[in-house]
Design brief:
heterodimer; A: about 500 residues; alpha/beta; 2 domains; B: alpha+beta; Elongation Factor Tu (Ef-tu), domain 3; six-stranded mixed beta sheet; six-stranded antiparallel barrel; binds flavin-adenine dinucleotide
Amino acid sequence: MSWDAIVVGAGHNGLVAAARLGQAGRRVLLLEALEGPGGLLGAPAAGQGAGSGGTGPGVRIAAQPTWLNPIVTMGLGLDRYGLGPGVAQPTRAWGPDGPVTLTAGSALGVAPETAAAYAALHARLRRLAGPLARFMGRTPPPLNGAGAGDLLALALDGLALRRLGRADMRELLRILLSNVWDLLEDSLGDGPLAGALAFDATLGGAMGPRSPGTVLPLLYRLAGAPRGADPEILIGALLKAVAATGGVLRCGAPVARILVGDNDRAEGVQLESGEEFRAPLVLSNLHPRRTLTGLLGVAHLDAEDVRRARLMATRGMAARIDLRLATLPEALPAGTRLVVAPRLGAVEAAFDGAKYGGLPERPVLEAVLVPGAVPRLAVTATFVPHAPAGSWTGKSRGTLETRVVAALDEALPGLRSEVTGIETMTPDDIEARYGLPGGHWHHGEFRTDQMLMLRPFARVARYRLPVAGLYLCGAGSHPGGDITGLPGWNAAGQALKDEGKRR
Amino acid sequence: MTPAIRQPEPLGLVPGPFHDRIAALNRQQGWTGWMGHASPTVLDTVEFEYFAIRNGTTLFDISPMNKYRIAGPDAEAVVNRLVTRDIRKLKPGRVAYAIWCNAEGNVVDDGTVFRLAPNEFRLCCQEPQLGWLDDVAWGYDVTITDDSAAIAALAVQGPTSCAVLKAAGLAGVEELKPFDIRSFRVETHDIMVSRTGFTGDLGYELWMAPGAALGLWDRLMEAGRVRGIRAIGYAAVEMARIEAGFLLPRVDFLSSQTHLRPGRARNPYELGLDWLVALDKPHFNGRRALLALSRQRPARRLVTIEIDRDKPAHHAFVYHRKRREVGFVTSALWSPTVKRNIACAWIEAPWVQDGGDLWVEIYRQRELTWNRRMARARIVERRVFDSARRRATPPADF
Ligand SMILES: Cc1cc2nc3c(=O)[nH]c(=O)nc-3n(C[C@H](O)[C@H](O)[C@H](O)COP(=O)(O)OP(=O)(O)OC[C@H]3O[C@@H](n4cnc5c(N)ncnc54)[C@H](O)[C@@H]3O)c2cc1C
């Protein structure tokens, strides 16, 4: 059996890439190592048995309702496949003096001037994120051996920043590489509002709000859609889109090797079982390091590319903790995201611990209720090091769980006594289960030297790998992680374009 | 963790394994730095030393060269991945001149690869390469060791060098063909000899433990007394290497690791080293870029030119029809042996092909007054000095 294209990994980006290739008439085979598709978005991890353990339905990594970028939902016509309109998801930012509720651009529970300042900041950042959003839906421009000095100029061109107008452009350049703490403190003052935004800007990465370059991730977030849908609905729609174009998904099929022909072109893949599949086009949804040094193999690569793949910053910082609850907490409405990051300093302090490999004393986190027969609270705590003091132990897991529950108990009084079970996925666990080096949220740290035309690193930043016919299509490539579908969309587009040139 | 106590690095240039002998002979007290070692520039007069290379035997300390040992089950794969030549064809006991390139196909460095055993290589080169080697070898089962300080090396070059070595007790050295390696036992020391060198003449390079260095030096000096032996400095070697057409990194081209400005690195096609690139072997560093470059005309070429008149064209520009600037000189020499005024020069591609009507502008200062002259130049063969004795096996005794 031969195929026009093989996609390795059925994370949401793999699914998007497969659907776009299918749409262009390619016969696509999608190979997924796990029992089900969706990757970090969809495939729940079976009960880990850690902490107070159990055999629940398992932890789903990206638990918050999310949405794909409109370029993707429209490009694939996902509404035809059951993707509803989505719902706006408010954020409840907890603080000792009462919560602040945020919906796109408006803040409730703060002084009127703060609310006005927030509305203004939100509008300003959304405007500045505009050119970024356009840029996210395309292959980044080539570097062409340009020097570091040319880099910024090129970025400016590519971003079509000029359309912003002089004042906005100046403002963007001013804040782009600065730190989110200063921006938020200047605009909003300190408190749960600033804390929640600082949390969003640094979530999953190895930078605290005072680290330079933390405004950019916030802009990226703001460039996305302000609504969400249950992961199940997103995955369902994507699966239908793949099937509708004749794509075939095989789960439980871990790929061991990418096959390269004597002509230095990708020609298929080999599963761990030894089974082989042939196709002139191979797209990998896997982490860049895994794709290059694992599946492809260093023998096919120049030393520089191997070095960059080895050294790219990709230590995960986010842990998922699921609490099974006896009853639903009244203080948290369903469909609302709770953020516990009461001050800017709380986020920075949590980062300080992790910076030196320690667990945060007071984790900063987000949580959402997952209703069901056994209601659960799905928690993502950040600044949890990949491996505290060398490696995880039963004790350090226990410490993390205790501290997370303590933080939540403050925000949702009485919660502690409702907890009937805990399942924890540390970055280390995420790495092992999803074959994801570092277990990183974004498949690689989201910082300026690993973004745009440097994502994941120079020479492979345009999806195309050095071996012809081989592409990266996961979160490790531009524009990066989160649930957007854009890496998969852009990669498939680039592959089709290159194929067209060859014909 | 307690930090390891580090020995302070010595300040300034450090003496090499032959230093005591060289210092005693260094009448000019001329020293230069070479990888942190004190290396002689001229001991007596450069003319004496140069003519000793072409007429007698010379000793030149090449210990400062970087030497790396690459050993293990994947040694061949790693070296083949490093260099552009097909190293699978290099047999144990043989040496090959090689270059290596970065991912853009630009030359990182050049050097000699010694295949000491099926799974053991030594790489000798000008620039430090340990970091690069570690990168190239990542994922392979090899051990890479920096042997630079552990091995003393002496270049024994000149028409009587074989005779000197025989007289010094290295019986059988005459059997070595160019690029052969053989080990000899001299007194209690193992001396490895390769028939290699940087002079384009008959010559050998001797490799040994630093403890064997001074004893060997004395032995060679004694054996060479009636065969015109002379210790020499770097200036004479430089003359011989220009005649012989060898390139020197930092002088004729910049390693892709040392240049700062974009566009300053050079590829093998520009350097005229196409013959070292085996595009038909499996992937090696830079192969994809080199494949593309091999299909284009290089933008410029490094060539040897011969110049009318007898004044060396140091630092000269090259012109077409005396008007259009089309290149510049990197190394220049009036060759005393072939009696030609030669230079190594970068020339832009169209004028390499055209070849005719090239001029260099020679700058001369006489008693604090500068003047300049245009002199006609022609592109000639790279190896201006070539002697049958470089290849003859066994070499003549003289
Ligand atoms: C704790 C945590 C919480 C997060 N929460 C959110 C959130 O709330 N909102 C949000 O937008 N983003 C969130 N993210 C980020 C988001 O989940 C990821 O950026 C995104 O899912 C990446 O999608 P992907 O398709 O590129 O890769 P993945 O989802 O990682 O998909 C890769 C797929 O490849 C498969 N695979 C691996 N090895 C092989 C192999 N050898 N052969 C075949 N298949 C293989 C994997 O099993 C997986 O299915 C979170 C991340 C983490 C770590």
